[in-house]
Amino acid sequence: MKIRIGTRGSKLALWQAYHISDLLSKGGIDSEIVTIETKGDKILDVTISKIGSKGVFTEEIEEQLLSGQIDIAVHSAKDMQSELPQDFELIAFTTREKVNDVIVSRNQSLSIEDESKPFKLGTSSTRRLATLKRHYPHIETVPIRGNLQRRISKMDEGQCDALLLAYAGVHRMEYDDLIVEHLSLDKFIPPVGQGSVAIEVAKNLDAEKKAIVRKLTNDPDTEKRLLSERAFLKKLQGGCSVPVFALANLDGNNLSIVGGVTSLDGQVQIKENASGNIENAESIGLELAEKVINAGGKELLAEIKSQL
Ligand SMILES: NCc1[nH]cc(CCC(=O)O)c1CC(=O)O
């Protein structure tokens, strides 16, 4: 058996694909990596929230899953919509990396906490922008898009002094030396799924292939955390372009999740939590969503979406 792995062509995406290929190979399964260019890779001059269509990074890949040109597709879990088109499913989540965001800069003396030394921080994520406005209003932000390497060259050209990024991507691309600060999970709660690699398949994929890929790549603890977070996101109809955040953690058989939504200007934040037995991961996520909705989350989200 040979598994054809579809992926976007960025270095981070390729790292993820090779990671899956390695896990398969340790289990004695051969694989081949197929790179696929998506709309999201071609349009670089506008923020993702303005491209508008769902699945800008997934559509072309899903076409190849459906036609059988590839068997599995590898994505950053956090980039996956909470509701996939009906012919597709996620069958595995790899062991999660540290979930926090970091500040990356050539200037080791920067600190986001030091209000006397403001600096220009590059980010285009609405969640990060809203969080910055709420907790660090002295920080000036600059929109920066593109893959990690591109963002770092934009920083080096002087467009900004520092970048706000997920630790997972920075670490995988081996830019650890540029990390000047790890952001606290109390203030910067990550988006759903940050730090894990998800495997997507067409539902009609051969059952034996599905089972073998899942067995060799899925981390059950990560899966429970992500199922809970993704159930929350789906119920709230969040999506990756709005400042919705959630993080589930495990302590033995207990799963606890914190999550919510922040207004774009940072003035309003709804943040709730829920917990229970790990077996009820998804219903705990739904319970969290209900709490956020009861606290006015739907109205806040509608207002945010009208402003994007
Ligand atoms: N939005 C792009 C993206 N998708 C996944 C990661 C990082 C790796 C991960 O969280 O799995 C990044 C970069 C970033 O947000 O800094």
UniProtKB/TrEMBL annotation:
GO cellular component: cytoplasm
Record-linked SUPFAM superfamilies: Periplasmic binding protein-like II (SSF53850), Porphobilinogen deaminase (hydroxymethylbilane synthase), C-terminal domain (SSF54782)
Superkingdom: Bacteria
Record bears the keyword Transferase: yes
Pathway entry: Porphyrin-containing compound metabolism; protoporphyrin-IX biosynthesis; coproporphyrinogen-III from 5-aminolevulinate: step 2/4
Catalytic activity: 4 porphobilinogen + H2O = hydroxymethylbilane + 4 NH4(+)
Co-factor note (free text): Binds 1 dipyrromethane group covalently.
GO molecular function, one term: hydroxymethylbilane synthase activity
UniProt cross-references to Pfam families, sorted A to Z: Porphobil_deam, Porphobil_deamC
Gene3D superfamilies named among the record's database cross-references: Periplasmic binding protein-like II (3.40.190.10), Porphobilinogen deaminase, C-terminal domain (3.30.160.40)
EC numbers on record: 2.5.1.61
Function: Tetrapolymerization of the monopyrrole PBG into the hydroxymethylbilane pre-uroporphyrinogen in several discrete steps.
Protein name: Porphobilinogen deaminase
